[in-house]
Amino acid sequence: WQPECFANSETAVGVAVLDGDTARDESVRMKFRCSGHLLEWRRRWPMLRSMILEHAPDIIGLQEVDLTPNGRNLSSAAHDEEIHRDLSEAGYEGGFTCKRG
């Protein structure tokens, strides 16, 4: 079964964005084998955005996005508004929700 709005979809992209607290965690950075500044949002988002738009998917799924204050983690800067703005400018529509459970 496929929802009607996705019936003609041909491509989808899923990206684990890596939330800010995780990117700052020393044990996580060691897994990526790179220095912390390479995982900073101002560096990662332009590359992720470019990769997503290069593939021009019909559906985009993002994980580990730092949300505005109604999100679970208030210690990280929120990125959902920037992502929404950039993808809206590229012609996409969508929204964000917190993981349940």
Structure explained in plain terms:
The chain is 37% helix and 10% strand. By secondary structure, the protein is α+β, with helices and mostly antiparallel strands.
Order of helices and strands: EHHHEH
The biggest beta sheet, please?
2 strands, parallel
The order of strands across the largest sheet is 1-2
The tally of strands reads 2
Give the overall average pLDDT.
75
* Low-pLDDT runs: none
Q: Identify the overall geometry.
A: globular
Terminus-to-terminus distance: 25 Å
Strand content: 5-15%
- Give the class from helix and strand content and strand pairing: alpha+beta
Quickly describe the structure.
Helix content is 37%, strand content 10%. The protein contains four helices and two strands.
Task: Give the tags.
101 residues; two-stranded parallel ribbon; 4 helices; alpha+beta; single chain
Q: What order do the helices and strands come in, and which of them pair?
A:
Elements: E1 12-16, H1 20-24, H2 26-32, H3 41-55, E2 59-63, H4 80-89
Parallel strand pairs: 1-2
